């Protein structure tokens, strides 16, 4: 790199640092001046009316009240309490997709190749015997 390029880069960096420190000093002095004026004033400002977070409901929103499929969660009615573990276990008894399926007894019947091939007859995805 040329020395002129390096010098111009250093000068630009120095100017940006000086400018930011000057701006920071001005903002601190204005905050202190503002703090002095607010301390001298003892009157409270008048309350302003705030806009509502949720404006009046539309007819569609009113029609959805009580609808269990509504996207407005507050208007949903509470259902029965969450089921206990015993109730969940009772509901999953005998279900092959249950996580407790490993506890079931294995079938004593061991199918032969002929039985497996007979069951796969006509299935296009089955591996065909040679």
Secondary structure elements and pairings:
Elements: H1 3-40, H2 59-64, H3 85-91, H4 113-119
Structure overview:
With 130 residues, the protein is mainly alpha-helical. The protein has a domain at 1-37. Helices cover 45% and strands 0% of the residues. The radius of gyration is 38 Å and the shape is flat. The two termini are 76 Å apart. The mean pLDDT is 76.
List keywords for this structure.
130 residues, flat, mainly alpha
Give the total of beta strands: 0
Strand content: under 5%
Taking all Cα atoms into account, the compactness measure Rg is 38 Å
Which descriptor suits the 3D outline?
Answer: flat
For the residues shown, what is the average pLDDT? 76
The amount of helix comes to 40-55%
Short description:
It is built from 4 helices and no strands. With 130 residues, it is an all-alpha fold.
